[in-house]
Records
---
Amino acid sequence: MKTATFKITEDDYIDAIRLHSKMPPALRWIGAVLAFILAAGAACGSQDMRALACITLASNLLAIFAVPVLFRFVSRRHYRNYRAIQAEFSAVLNDCGLHLGTEFGESRITWGNILKWRHNSQYLLLYMAPRLFHVVPKSIAIQGFDLQRLLEGLHTNVGPAS
């Protein structure tokens, strides 16, 4: 069993939180439909309806542009206060799941304890609870870690990625 080591940088942490926070496609469609209904109501409705639509649109645009800035600020602050995530991790894959360790402690993540998982081209998130997850950078494959076997194990034992 090959042991790989990695560190989660501040940028890694922010990107992993962004992956965790990604809105499901169904919610994006609901948002688009609601925006269309609001625009139609503004175009066809009374003066009060147009005013309400403009206020709602302006507040949504503010949120769209302000949230990423606040998101990065809050995520950076969380990372700086989260000492354990800044340590070097070791990862070992076995038949029962994944073993992660640092100087602060260790986690034996068995297939049965993984609620769900999510991944993109850079990171793998293993959820122990709806908002509690471990971050595993996919770059550990460079060290000889069998990432494909881990992904297959997750798919077989936990189900498809969410």
Note: The chain is about 50% helix and 25% strand.
---
Amino acid sequence: MNSYIYIKKNKIKLMLNLLLFLTLSSCIDLSRDREYNIYLSYFGDSLTSHFPIHTNDFDKYSYSVDTVAYSNTEDFNLTLIGTKNLIYKEKLNYSNKKIYNLEDSCIVIVNDFINKRNLLINLDNYEYKSKISASCNKDPIVIPNFWSNILSNGLNKLDKNFKYIIIDSKVGENVYSSKINYYKSYMPSIVKHGYSKGIAFNEKEDIIIYWLVLW
């Protein structure tokens, strides 16, 4: 009788511990998703409409965000790993868009000089400027500098196998964020200010990155 009660108590304790673990796990997931959605709301639906609504649907993901505009830019990107089906789906969704790579002569990388080593330097003390090829004979294509990703040491800190779909991009005199100083820019004059949103994907390694950058 005593041993039956002991076993029963242990089962109840195990069930309670399991319930607590599941509750805590659920709270952690909800907390992460809530924070992610706060950033989506911060930038607004029109600029983040291409981002997934939830991160809990993915096993391997990370995101980085800059809302401080320290280098006179704001950006948000979500990286998903192991997403072969998602890459295929997004290529179909945007089949009317051209796919670019870094070899395109008109690619301009936002603040291409920034990396993790010089991120915190005072840029006002230097004459930094993103590069644009002299052979470019059409409108520049602007993509982010993914300096926060540990994926490669390429021009935009991504592996050469990445390709890019520009979903929307606008340049001009308008400042698309109140935190960005119109009188300051580290970009070529033809793309002094603007925004770009899109998708970078690497089919070889099953990686997809949703991005938004304002400069």
Note: The beta strands are 61-66, 74-81, 99-100, 107-109, 141-143, 163-171, 194-202, 207-214.
